[in-house]
Specification:
Blueprint: H1 3-14, H2 19-26, E1 43-48, H3 52-64, E2 67-73, H4 77-86, E3 92-94, H5 97-103, E4 109-112, H6 119-128, E5 132-135, H7 143-155, E6 160-162, H8 170-180, E7 187-195, H9 210-213, H10 225-241, E8 247-253, E9 266-272, E10 278-284, E11 292-298, E12 301-305, E13 310-314, E14 329-332, E15 335-339, H11 344-349, H12 365-378, H13 387-406, E16 409-411, H14 414-417
Parallel strand pairs: 1-2, 1-4, 2-3, 4-5, 5-6, 7-10
Antiparallel strand pairs: 7-11, 8-9, 8-16, 9-10, 11-12, 12-13, 13-15, 14-15
């Protein structure tokens, strides 16, 4: 393409001729680059829980540059020592979260990345200490405890954000607009999966530490695949559909990793949404083929999305969209796909045609959720996943886990869904 042709194309996309729909669909929601428009000093934080999830939050906070981890806490010394090597210089360490909260008066916020059965105790104490709280989901193992923590977060003056990652992910927030403005017409069903071949088991030298380190494998502490991974994908469907499931069915089995674990390594389930919409979900630790993704199907097209890419596949009888002639297109599995690029408007302002990019923008979900946490505090932006959203995601996930455990259909009563 000649330079003058590229310029003409960009001028068109920037101009009014693109129409309101183009502006709506290409404007990213809520989360943008932290270095653009961010203001104020770094947020001084403590990190409670330095296992794999906590370590990822630590490294992404450093990458973000707007959240400074000044204190670390974990009951398992090797995790604490490992995290200290990655933390800013002079970060203090604790083995009791109460000591951290008592001694670190200058901290503004805490990130809670401990197993979910500890979340109520730690979250309550952090809020009472006047800290903003970022809490990994699910909010608890017990639903009453989860609801209590969500209500405490709702009543607090501080920010209480739950790490349901896709709510703060720019690509998912971009896809939300396509669903909401009816590009697919009415969504008729949803399909998703999470697949990875790994055991989730960590080597343990001391048998007394087995459940401490491998808590994800035991029903006392975890719903396994459903509450650790499926939760995020169930929430995407509820968010896009503006509804919660009214009932769920499921079953599971341990097919590969027969090592004494109490949660299945393979699960399948169906979530029933209002108006007859069904969400078919599967997850396994036995195979990695096709990884993780969600697909939303409507009478005029389908949207396939994961943390890296989003694609719109139109039906043959779907009406022409005014902007699609200028969009990036690729063949995927013999279907013509239109790339959904979250920061297309930003790229156009930089003189970059999104359709000509060799590589599409990518986002780390831990980075974007921490960025959203920072902005909600320093810039008083909307909390993109607060107590209500965190509670509902937790509720749905544990109801699915119950259905899988019982191998039956479980209803979700509407009275449970609200915190009020």
């Amino acid at each position: 393409m000649r330079a003058e042709e590229r310029m003409s194309r960009r001028d068109f996309l920037r101009g009014a001729a693109a129409g309101a729909a183009w502006a709506l669909l290409l404007r990213p929601e809520g989360v943008t680059g932290a270095q653009e428009g961010s203001s104020g000093p770094p947020l001084r934080c403590g990190l409670i829980g330095t296992g794999s999830q906590g370590l990822t939050l630590l490294t992404q906070a450093a990458r973000l540059g707007r959240i400074r981890i000044e204190a670390l806490c974990d009951v398992y010394e090797p995790h604490l020592q490992r995290a200290q090597k990655e933390a800013p210089e002079n970060a203090r360490t604790y083995t009791d979260y109460r000591q951290l909260l008592d001694k670190e008066k200058e901290l503004e916020a805490v990130l809670v990345a401990t197993p979910p059965h500890t979340h109520l105790e730690i979250g309550r104490a952090a809020l009472e200490a006047g800290k903003h709280v970022f809490c990994e989901p699910p909010l608890a193992v017990d639903l009453e405890e989860a609801r209590t923590l969500a209500r405490l977060g709702q009543e607090a003056k501080q920010v209480f954000q739950v790490g349901v990652q896709k709510r703060t992910h720019p690509l998912y927030r971009h896809v939300l607009k396509f669903v909401r403005v009816g590009v697919l017409d009415r969504v008729t069903w949803v399909r998703a999966q999470w697949q990875r071949k790994l055991s989730l088991r960590r080597p343990v030298k001391n048998p007394e530490q087995e459940r401490l380190l491998n808590w994800k494998l035991y029903r006392e502490f975890s719903g396994g695949l459903i509450t650790e991974y499926g939760l995020h994908q169930f929430d995407v469907a509820s968010w896009m559909l503006r509804a919660l499931p009214v009932a769920v069915s499921g079953f599971g089995a341990t097919l590969l990793w027969r090592d004494g674990r109490e949660v299945p390594d393979t699960v399948s389930c169906i979530l029933e949404y209002p108006k007859g919409v069904r969400f078919l979900y599967s997850a396994t630790l036995t195979n990695s083929f096709e990884g993780a993704y969600e697909v939303f199907y409507g009478s005029m097209g389908a949207i396939w999305v994961n943390d890296t890419n989003g694609w719109l596949f139109k039906e043959a009888d779907a009406p022409m969209l005014g902007w699609e002639v200028y969009a990036r297109k690729e063949k995927r599995d013999n279907y013509q796909g239109i790339a959904l690029i979250a920061e297309a408007t930003k790229l156009l302002k930089q003189g970059i045609d999104p359709a000509e990019l060799k590589e599409l923008p990518t986002y780390n979900p831990f980075y974007t959720e921490l960025e959203a946490f920072y902005r909600s505090i320093r810039e008083e932006k909307e909390v993109l996943c607060g107590p209500q959203e965190g509670w509902q995601a937790t509720l749905v996930a544990w109801k699915v886990a119950e259905a899988v455990e019982k191998g039956t259909r479980v209803k979700i009563e509407p009275t449970l869904c609200s915190l009020t």
